[in-house]
Design brief:
The chain is α+β, with helices and mostly antiparallel strands. Bound molecules: adenosine-5'-diphosphate and magnesium ion. The site of adenosine-5'-diphosphate has 15 residues, from strand 9, strand 11 and strand 14.
Length: 728
C-alpha cells in the first residue's frame, strides 16, 4: 500500500474523540460574543441607541457624532473581552467571506500608544477591490471599493477580532458583494408586502423575509483527505470505484451519530451559541459520513450572514478535531450529495407569518394572497430560480437523478390543491351574498383545519410548501444563500406590486369590494400558475416529458441555466425594484461563468495529473508483476505455461487497454482545454468546457476505476471509497 494511504488510514484508526465539556447552559452562552441591540441598550446613551435602532428598522443614516459614540462603546465592550483587532467582514463574489484585520492599537506622541476606534473606522473602510472578482465593473469604473457598515447585522467577536458586517461596493456605488443586492431586495419585498398587507390589517408597518437554512455536509478525517489530491484541490473525488457497501441499507440516516462526529458537533454548537447563530437540529444524513445542521430561522439578511459565518466556523472547528468538512454538492459518486434547503417565509411586525393560515376567514384570505402570489412569482420566473442556484458543483446534483431535478416546480400538497381548485370557480366580478358566505366558510375558513394533517411532503420537489413556509431545496450546500434569497425576494416583491395594481384597478373601475377584488385576481393567478404546480415524482422521466410539454425549462448545465440571468426580463426585474442595475447583473453573470470555467479547468488538470502520475504507473507496476509471474511459469512449465497463465495474460492485456485509453483520453482532454481556452467569448468558452472538457472527466474516470478493481490492493496509491467513508 502506498505510504500516504497507509499512514492516513492508520492515523484515522488511532483517533479518539475530543472531550468536550459544556459548562454552561446553551441559553447562557447564546450571543455572548455579539454586540446585540440589547447590549447597545446597556452601553449607549439613549439618543445614540434610538438612532441606531431607527437605522436598523428603517434603514436611516447614522450621523458622524453618533457613529463615534457607538464605535467607542463597541470598542470598550470588545477590549474587555480580550479583543485586539477589528475588521470589516464582507462577502465578495467569491462566495466566501473576507476580512482584513486592523489593530485597535495606535501610537501617539511621546512614544505612547492607545487603543483607538472611531466612527469613521466603524462606518467605512477602503479595502483594495482589485483582487476580488468584479466581472468587469472595475474596468469601467474606478478600481477602489469601500466597505460600509450594515447595522442590521450585529458586530461579533470571532477569535480576538471584532467583526463588523459590511456591504462591499465600488467607488461609484455598484455592488461588489452578495449582501448589497440582498438588502435592496429585502427592502423591496418589505414595501411591496406592507402595501398588500394593508388590505387586511392597517397596522402593519414592516414585513421581514425569514430564512431557515439546512446545511448538509460531509465530515472526512483530515489525514484521509490529505491522501486524496482530488478532494484537497477540488473538494470532491474525481476517481474512485464505489464501495461494495454504500447507502443501500439506509443505516446512516437519523442513525446514532458517531462519537468523533458528535464531539465535533458539540464543539461547533458551542461556538455557534457564542456567535449568536441559533443552531438547533443535528442529525446523520443519508450517505455515510454525511450530516446536517439546522438553526431556528431568522430575518433573512442575518440568516445569510450566519450561514456564511457558520461555514467558516465549521472549517475552523474541524481542524481541532482532525476533520475536513466537505461542502461540495457531490463529493462522492454513487451516494447522495449535499444541499442547503432554504426555508423561506414573510412575517409582519404585528407578529403574523403571512404564509401561515390564521384563525379567521379574513386572515386566511391574507394567507392565500401571499401563498398564491408566491406560486405565481415562481411560475413566471422559474428559469431565474434555476439560474440562482447554478454552479459547476451543483450541476452534479440538479438533474442528476437525485434531490431536486433541474426543472423548477412547486409542490403544495393535496389539500391546498383542492382549495385552489375551489377558488378557481369564483364568479367573475361581483359575488352574490351566498357565494361570499360559501367561499369564506367552506373554502377559506377551513384551511387551518386541513393544514393540520397536511403531512404528505414530497421530497423530490425543488420548491415545496411545508405548512407555514416554502422550502427552496435546489440551493447547493456550498452556495452563499444571498444569491437565491435576492432572487426569491425580488420576484415576490415584483409580483406583489403587480397584484396590488390589479386589485386596485378592480376596486376603482368595477366597483368591487376589497375582498371580491382580491378573490377575482387570485382566481386568475391560479389559472395562470397551473404550469408550475406538480405533485408527482420529480425524479422520474415521466416528469421530464410532462414538464417539456408544459413549457417549463430544464437547464441541466450551468452555462445554459445562467443565460436567464441576463435576459431582458431579469434586467428589468432588478432595475425596476432598484436591486441591481444592468452593470451589476452583467458582472455577476460573468463572474459565475468564469467560476464555472475555472472549476472545470482545475478538475481537468487534477484528474490528468492523477491519471498519468498515479494511476498509469500503478497499472504498469502491477502489469510487470504479472509479466514476471508469466515468465516464471514459462520457465517451470515450458510449453504448458499458457494454460496456467490464462488469467494473468488476460489481465495483462486488460491493463494495457485501460492504460492506453487513459492515455488517449488525457491527451484528448488537454487538447479540448487548449482549444476552449482560445475562445474569447466567456459564454462560448463555458459552453465549450461544459460540452468538450467535462464529459472527458467521466470518460477518464471509467478506465481508472476499472484499474482500481484489477490492481493489487497493496499497490493502489489512492485511499479508496470504503476507506474514505467507513474508516472510523
Ligand atoms: P424539515 O422537515 O425540512 O427538516 P423543519 O421543521 O426541521 O423541516 O424546519 C427546517 C427549517 O425551517 C428550520 O431551520 C426552521 O427554523 C425553518 N423554518 C421554520 N419556520 C420557518 C419560517 N416561518 N420561515 C423560515 N424558516 C422557517
Ligand atoms: Mg427541509
Amino acid at each position: 500500500m502506498s505510504t500516504l494511504r497507509f499512514f492516513a488510514i492508520k492515523e484515522t484508526l488511532n483517533r479518539k474523540p475530543l472531550k468536550i465539556t459544556e459548562k454552561k447552559k446553551r441559553s447562557e452562552l447564546f450571543g455572548q460574543n455579539v454586540y446585540s441591540q440589547a447590549k447597545m441598550r446597556q452601553t449607549l446613551t439613549t439618543s445614540a441607541y434610538t438612532s441606531v435602532s431607527t437605522a436598523i428598522e428603517k434603514g436611516s443614516k447614522i450621523d458622524r457624532n453618533i457613529a463615534d459614540q457607538i464605535a467607542s462603546a463597541m470598542k470598550d465592550w470588545a477590549l474587555a473581552k480580550g479583543v485586539t483587532h477589528y475588521t470589516h467582514w464582507f462577502q465578495p463574489l467569491t462566495g466566501a467571506t473576507a476580512e482584513k484585520h486592523d489593530a485597535f492599537f495606535e501610537t501617539i506622541e511621546n512614544n505612547g500608544a492607545i487603543e483607538k476606534f472611531g466612527g469613521t473606522q466603524l462606518v467605512q473602510q477602503e479595502p483594495d477591490a482589485s483582487s476580488f472578482p468584479n466581472g468587469g465593473i472595475r474596468n469601467t469604473f474606478e478600481a477602489r471599493g469601500y466597505t460600509a457598515w450594515d447595522p442590521t447585522s450585529p458586530a461579533f467577536i470571532y477569535g480576538t477580532t471584532l467583526c463588523i458586517p459590511t456591504v462591499f461596493v465600488s467607488y461609484t456605488g455598484e455592488a461588489l458583494d452578495y449582501k448589497t443586492p440582498l438588502l435592496r431586495a429585502l427592502q423591496a419585498v418589505d414595501s411591496a408586502a406592507v402595501a398588500v398587507c394593508k388590505y387586511f390589517d392597517k397596522n402593519v408597518k414592516k414585513v421581514n423575509a425569514s430564512l431557515g437554512w439546512e446545511q448538509e455536509y460531509f465530515l472526512i478525517d483530515s489525514a484521509l483527505v490529505s491522501s486524496r489530491p482530488d478532494i484537497q484541490l477540488t473538494g470532491r473525488t474525481l476517481l474512485g470505484h464505489d464501495s461494495a457497501k454504500g447507502q443501500q441499507l439506509d443505516d446512516h440516516y437519523f442513525g446514532t451519530i458517531p462519537n468523533r462526529a458528535m464531539s465535533y458537533m458539540r464543539d461547533l454548537e458551542t461556538e455557534c451559541m457564542l456567535l449568536g447563530i441559533p443552531v438547533k437540529t443535528r442529525h446523520n444524513e443519508v450517505a455515510p459520513n454525511q450530516f446536517e445542521l439546522a438553526p431556528i430561522y431568522e430575518e433573512a439578511n442575518l440568516a445569510v450572514d450566519h450561514n456564511a459565518l457558520l461555514m467558516d466556523v465549521m472549517d475552523k472547528v474541524a481542524e481541532r478535531h482532525d476533520f475536513k468538512v466537505l461542502f461540495h454538492e457531490k463529493p462522492f459518486k454513487g451516494i447522495n450529495g449535499s444541499g442547503k434547503h432554504n426555508n423561506w417565509s414573510l412575517s409582519t411586525d404585528t407578529g403574523v407569518n403571512l404564509l401561515s393560515p390564521g384563525k379567521t376567514p379574513m386572515s386566511n384570505l391574507q394567507f392565500l394572497t401571499f401563498f398564491i402570489n408566491t406560486i405565481k412569482a415562481v411560475n413566471d420566473n422559474e428559469e431565474l430560480l434555476r439560474a440562482a442556484v447554478a454552479s459547476a458543483s451543483n450541476d452534479h446534483r440538479l438533474g442528476a437523478n437525485e434531490a431536486p431535478p433541474a426543472i423548477i416546480s412547486v409542490f403544495i400538497g393535496e389539500q391546498l390543491t383542492h382549495v385552489l381548485n375551489e377558488l378557481e370557480n369564483v364568479t367573475n366580478g361581483k359575488l352574490s351574498p351566498q357565494e361570499k358566505t360559501d367561499l369564506k366558510l367552506n373554502v377559506v375558513g377551513k384551511i387551518p383545519e386541513i393544514l393540520l394533517d397536511n403531512t404528505d411532503r414530497n421530497r423530490t420537489s425543488p420548491f415545496a410548501f411545508t405548512g407555514n413556509k416554502f422550502e427552496f431545496r435546489a440551493v447547493g450546500s456550498k452556495a452563499n444563500c444571498a444569491n437565491p434569497m435576492t432572487l426569491l425576494n425580488s420576484i415576490v416583491a415584483k409580483q406583489l406590486i403587480d397584484f396590488k395594481i390589479e386589485v386596485d384597478v378592480l376596486i376603482a373601475k368595477k366597483d368591487l369590494k376589497k375582498d371580491e377584488a382580491v378573490f377575482n385576481v387570485l382566481r386568475e393567478y391560479i389559472k395562470k400558475s397551473k404550469t408550475i404546480l406538480f405533485e408527482g415524482n420529480g425524479y422520474g422521466d415521466a416528469w421530464e416529458k410532462e414538464a417539456k410539454k408544459r413549457g417549463l425549462s430544464n437547464n441541466i448545465s450551468t452555462p445554459e441555466a445562467l443565460k436567464a440571468k441576463i435576459s431582458k426580463k431579469a434586467f428589468s426585474l432588478y432595475k425596476d425594484l432598484g436591486v441591481m442595475n444592468e452593470t451589476e447583473v452583467q458582472a455577476r453573470y460573468e463572474i459565475e461563468l468564469e467560476d464555472y470555467i475555472m472549476r472545470i479547468q482545475i478538475e481537468g488538470r487534477v484528474l490528468g495529473d492523477l491519471a498519468r502520475n498515479h494511476i498509469v504507473p500503478t497499472g504498469v507496476k502491477y502489469q510487470n508483476i504479472l509479466i514476471e509471474n508469466v515468465k516464471g511459469l514459462k520457465d517451470i512449465y515450458g510449453k504448458e505455461f499458457k494454460k496456467l497463465a490464462q488469467a494473468q495474460l488476460h489481465l495483462i492485456e486488460e491493463i494495457s487497454r485501460h492504460i492506453e485509453s487513459i492515455n488517449n483520453l488525457v491527451t484528448k482532454m488537454t487538447e479540448a482545454r487548449k482549444k476552449s481556452n482560445q475562445i474569447k467569448s466567456l459564454e462560448d468558452k463555458a459552453i465549450a468546457y461544459c460540452n468538450t472538457v467535462k464529459p472527458l472527466l467521466e470518460d477518464i474516470r471509467y478506465p481508472c476505476d476499472k484499474l482500481e478493481l484489477l490492481v493489487d490492493d497493496e499497490l493502489w496509491p489512492l485511499t479508496k471509497y470504503r476507506e474514505l467513508l467507513f474508516t472510523k
